[in-house]
Amino acid sequence: MSTERSSSSSEDHLRTMSPEDTYEQVNQSSIEDHIDSLSSDNLLRADARVRIYSTLFPFTPASIMDVGCGVGLTTAALKRACPEAIVFGCDVSENAIAYASRTDLSGPEYRAVAAGPDVKLERSFDAMIFQEFYPFTRTSNFDIHTDFLQFIVNNL
User: Fold this and answer.
1) Segment 63-104, tens digit of pLDDT
2) Which pLDDT score is estimated for 2?
3) What ranges in the chain are assigned the alpha helix state H?
4) Coil, strand or helix at 97
5) How far is CA 75 from the centre of its chain?
6) Least CB-packed of 28, 52, 101, 115 within 10 Å?
7) What does DSSP assign to residue 29?
8) pTM confidence score
9) Closest among 68, 72, 65, 2 to 31, alpha carbons compared
10) Residue 22 CB contacts under 8 Å (≥ 6 apart), including other chains
11) 143 Cβ partners below 8 Å, 6+ apart?
């Protein structure tokens, strides 16, 4: 594992690793253009993942943050599973957040956030979900991992 500090910030690293081009294409088209890929297979997986997450919580969370929410499929499934909870989806991609905000009317709040060590949101959360959170899962740079772990500590 590398322990050298990258010369770029965590935010720069996040932006280079996010599938921004894909999100831009999705956001510029209608939901009907993506219904097969977004709703059939991925939606079923999102609901199944949330059922698994729910069994892991030893409590009923009043607030849940979905970090790296992409277009909001898991975030929406979290809101369906926990309708009384405050559900918040964040992603570094403004296009993904725009799509989620436009298409998910079930009640979660969505916001473009670059998760980094100095980021403290207005509220803390009882639970956080990181479903294939790319910058964290696709690097062995220990300093980047530390930065994201600090984000968790700041907001949990």
Assistant:
1) 999 998 988 989 999 999 999 999 999 998 899 899 999 999
2) 36
3) 10-17, 20-27, 35, 43-56, 73-81, 94-103, 134-137, 142-155
4) helix
5) 8
6) 52
7) S
8) 0.73
9) 72
10) none
11) 2, 3, 4, 5, 6
